[in-house]
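Appendix C reproduces, verbatim, an entry submitted by the partner laboratory led by Prof. M.T., so that reviewers can inspect both the input and the predicted structure.
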Amino acid sequence: MFVGTVDRHFRAYVSSMTTQGTPDPVQDYASRAASADETAMQADWRARRLSWSRLGAALVVSLAFTYSARGGAASLAWSVGALGAAAFSVFVMLHRRAATAATRARAIAAACRAGIARCTRDWQNVPAPRLLMSP
C-alpha cells in the first residue's frame, strides 16, 4: 500500500513538471538539454566573435594614438581613438553578456542531464548536492 501511495504522488508531481504535450519527463529533460546545448553553442560563438571585435577596437585605439604620436593630425587621431574606446567598451559589455548566457545555458543543460539521471535512477550520474555554506 505504501508503494502505491508513493507512486501516485510521484506521477502527479512529475506530470506537473513536464512541458505540455510531452508526458515522459525523460523526453522533456532531453529536449530541454538539447535546446540548452544549442543555446550555449550559439552564445559561445557570439562571445568568441565579440572577443575578436574587442581586440580590433583596442587595436584601432592604439593605432590612432600611435598615428598622433608620430605627427599625424591630432584631431583625427583623437576622434578615431575616442570612437575606438567607445566601441571597445560596448564590446566588453556585450561579450560579458554572451559569456554569462553561455554559462547559464550550460548549467541548464547539466541540470536537465541530472534530471534524466534521477528519472532513470542512474545514481552514478546524479551530481552530489552542493553545500550552501563552506565547511
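Helices lie at 2-17, 25-69, 74-119. Additional entries are available on request from the coordinating office.
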